[in-house]
C-alpha cells in the first residue's frame, strides 16, 4: 500500500470541530453529577460555585493546551505533546494511559450513565444497564467504521439535538421554578469526606473531553488556526450552559429532593416539568445528547491508538495501524478501544469510574501545562499565544494539582489501581522497543 494512501484525511472544518468539542463535553456529567456535586458541597450556593470553578479550571487548561497544540497539529494529541516536550518514554506513558485506562474508562462511564436513562425511558429494571451500555458502545462504534465525516456528521446532529433538552431545562427552571437557587442546604449527606474540593472534582468529569479534539489534529483543515478557536469557544460555551442548567435545576427541584433522587434527578425533572409524554421526549433528547458524547469519545481515542501504532509503540502495531481502504477509518484500533471499554464497564461503577478517569488524565495534563514554559523559550514566534501568560498556565497547573490531591485523599485504593495500570506500560514499552530493534537488525542482515 502506498504510504500516502495509509494516511488520515484532513476533512474536518471549524463547524465539525466545534460540534465535536461541545458534543464530546456535554453529555452524562451535567445530567448525572448534580446530586453528587451537591452532596459534597452540602449547599446549593457552593454547588453552583463548584460548577463555575470547574469551568474556570478547564478554560485555563484549554487556553494553555491551545498554545501547545497549535505548535504540534498532529494526530495523537497529548501523546504527541508529551513526547515532543519530554521524550519518548513519557510520551508513550501518556498514550498508554489514554488507550488502556482513560479512554476505555470514560467511554464505559458515559455508556453506563446513558444506559440508566434508557432503562428509565423504557420502564425496565436497571439490571439491564450493563447489557444496554455494551450495546450502545458497539452501535456507536459501528458508526465510526466509516469515513470520519460520518462520525463528524453524527456529532453535529446530536449536538444540535442536545440543545433542545438543555434549553428546555434552563428556560423552564429559570422562569417556572419556585425555589431560590442559592443558599439551599441539604439535611442528609450520603457520603463521608465530602467537601468543596470533591465537588469540583465531580464537575470536572462533566467538563472533560475538551482535549480530545487535539487527537484529530491530523484530520483537521488548517489546525494551527482552527484548534485554538474550537477549544476556547467550546469550553466557554459549555461553562455558561452548565452554570445555567445547574441554576435552573435548583430553581425547580429543592436541594434535599435532588440529594435523595441522586442519578434520577434529570428523569424526575423531565417528567415533573413536562408531564409523562413531554418527560419521555425530553429524556429521549438527553439520551441523544449522551450518545453524541459517546460518539465523540469513540471518534477520538482510536486516533491515539493509530498514532502510537504508526510509531510502532504498541504490541500488534501493524494491525492497529490498519485503515479501511475507502473511508480511512482505524477500525482495528476502534475495536480494541470498544473491547477495553466493555471490560471496564463490567468491573466498575460509572460514578467511581468517572472520578478515576479525571484523576488519571490530570496527572498528565499537569506535565503538559508545565511544557508551555519550555516552548515559550524555544519558540518566540507562535501561531497562538495563551492570553494573560503566565497567570493562565499557573492557574491550570494549580487546578490540576488540586484535582490530583483531592482524588488521592478521596479514593486512595482506586488511585493506586489506576496508577498501577499506567506503570505496567513501562515494561511493555521496553519490550516493544527491544522487539523493534530486533526487527531492524534482522532486516539489515537480510539486505
Offer a quick outline of the entry:
By secondary structure, this protein is mostly helical.
Write the layout of secondary structure elements.
Blueprint: H1 14-25, H2 28-32, H3 34-41, H4 44-71, H5 78-86, H6 88-122, H7 129-143, H8 148-176, H9 196-207, H10 223-252, H11 255-261, H12 265-310, H13 317-320, H14 331-347, H15 350-378, H16 391-410, H17 412-423, H18 425-446
Protein name: Serine/threonine exchanger SteT
Transmembrane segments: 12-32, 44-69, 90-116, 128-146, 153-176, 196-218, 230-253, 281-306, 327-346, 358-375, 387-406, 412-432
Keywords: Membrane, Transmembrane, Transmembrane helix
What can you tell me about this protein's structure?
It is found in: Membrane. Keywords: Membrane, Transmembrane, Transmembrane helix. This is Serine/threonine exchanger SteT. The protein is mainly α. It has one domain: Up-down Bundle (Amino acid/polyamine transporter I). The chain contains 18 helices and no strands. Helix 6 (88-122) crosses helix 14 (331-347) and helix 7 (129-143) runs antiparallel to helix 14. Residues 1-6 have low confidence and may be disordered.
The 3D shape can be described as globular
Structural class: mainly alpha
**CATH class (first level) name:** Mainly Alpha
Supply the number of helical segments: 18
Low-confidence stretches: 1-6
Distance between the termini: 21 Å
Provide the gyration radius in Å.
21 Å
CATH architecture: Up-down Bundle
Average pLDDT reading? 81
CATH superfamily: Amino acid/polyamine transporter I
As an assembly, this protein is single chain
| SSE string, helices as H and strands as E | HHHHHHHHHHHHHHHHHH
As for the CATH topology, it is: Amino acid/polyamine transporter I
- Biggest sheet details: none
**Counted beta strands:** 0
Residue share in β-strands: under 5%
Question: What is the total number of structural domains?
Answer: 1
Helix content: over 70%
Organism: Lactobacillus corticis
Protein name: Serine/threonine exchanger SteT
Keywords: Membrane, Transmembrane, Transmembrane helix
GO molecular function: L-amino acid transmembrane transporter activity
Amino acid at each position: 500500500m502506498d504510504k500516502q494512501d495509509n494516511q488520515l484525511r484532513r476533512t474536518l472544518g471549524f463547524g465539525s470541530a466545534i460540534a465535536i468539542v461541545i458534543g464530546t463535553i456535554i453529555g452524562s456529567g451535567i445530567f448525572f453529577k448534580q446530586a453528587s456535586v451537591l452532596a459534597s458541597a452540602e449547599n446549593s450556593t457552593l454547588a453552583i460555585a463548584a460548577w463555575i470553578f470547574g469551568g474556570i479550571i478547564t478554560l485555563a487548561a484549554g487556553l494553555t493546551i491551545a498554545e501547545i497544540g497549535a505548535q504540534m497539529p498532529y494526530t495523537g494529541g497529548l501523546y504527541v505533546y508529551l513526547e515532543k516536550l519530554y521524550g519518548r518514554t513519557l510520551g508513550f506513558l501518556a498514550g498508554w494511559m489514554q488507550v488502556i485506562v482513560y479512554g476505555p474508562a470514560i467511554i464505559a462511564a458515559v455508556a453506563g450513565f446513558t444506559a440508566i436513562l434508557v432503562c428509565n425511558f423504557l420502564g425496565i429494571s436497571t439490571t439491564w444497564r450493563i447489557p444496554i451500555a455494551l450495546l450502545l458502545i458497539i452501535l456507536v462504534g459501528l458508526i465510526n467504521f466509516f469515513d470520519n465525516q460520518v462520525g463528524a456528521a453524527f456529532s453535529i446532529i446530536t449536538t444540535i439535538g442536545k440543545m433542545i433538552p438543555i434549553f428546555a431545562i434552563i428556560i423552564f427552571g429559570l422562569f417556572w421554578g419556585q425555589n431560590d437557587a442559592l443558599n439551599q442546604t441539604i439535611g442528609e449527606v450520603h457520603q463521608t469526606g465530602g467537601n468543596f474540593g470533591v465537588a469540583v472534582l465531580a464537575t470536572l468529569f462533566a467538563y472533560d473531553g475538551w482535549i480530545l479534539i487535539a487527537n484529530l489534529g491530523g484530520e483537521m483543515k488548517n489546525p494551527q488556526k482552527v484548534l485554538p478557536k474550537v477549544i476556547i469557544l467550546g469550553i466557554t460555551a459549555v461553562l455558561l450552559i452548565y452554570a445555567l442548567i445547574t441554576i435552573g435545576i435548583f430553581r425547580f427541584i429543592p436541594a434535599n429532593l435532588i440529594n435523595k433522587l441522586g442519578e434520577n434527578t434529570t428523569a424526575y425533572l423531565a417528567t415533573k416539568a413536562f408531564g409523562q409524554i413531554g418527560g419521555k421526549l425530553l429524556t429521549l433528547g438527553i439520551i441523544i445528547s449522551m450518545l453524541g458524547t459517546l460518539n465523540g469519545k469513540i471518534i477520538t481515542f482510536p486516533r491515539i491508538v493509530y498514532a502510537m501504532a504508526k510509531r510502532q509503540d504498541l504490541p500488534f502495531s501493524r494491525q492497529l495501524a490498519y485503515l479501511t481502504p475507502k473511508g480511512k477509518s482505524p477500525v482495528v484500533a476502534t475495536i480494541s478501544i470498544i473491547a477495553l471499554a466493555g471490560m471496564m464497564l463490567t468491573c466498575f461503577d460509572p460514578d467511581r469510574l468517572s472520578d478515576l478517569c479525571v484523576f488519571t488524565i490530570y496527572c498528565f495534563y499537569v506535565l503538559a501545562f508545565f511544557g508551555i514554559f519550555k516552548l515559550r523559550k524555544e519558540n518566540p514566534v507562535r501561531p497562538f499565544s495563551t492570553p494573560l501568560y503566565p497567570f493562565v498556565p499557573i492557574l491550570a497547573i494549580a487546578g490540576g494539582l488540586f484535582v490530583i490531591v483531592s482524588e488521592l485523599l478521596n479514593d486512595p485504593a482506586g488511585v493506586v489501581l489506576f496508577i498501577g495500570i499506567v506503570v505496567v506500560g513501562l515494561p511493555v514499552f521496553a519490550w516493544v522497543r527491544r522487539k523493534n530493534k530486533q526487527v531492524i537488525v534482522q532486516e539489515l542482515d537480510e539486505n
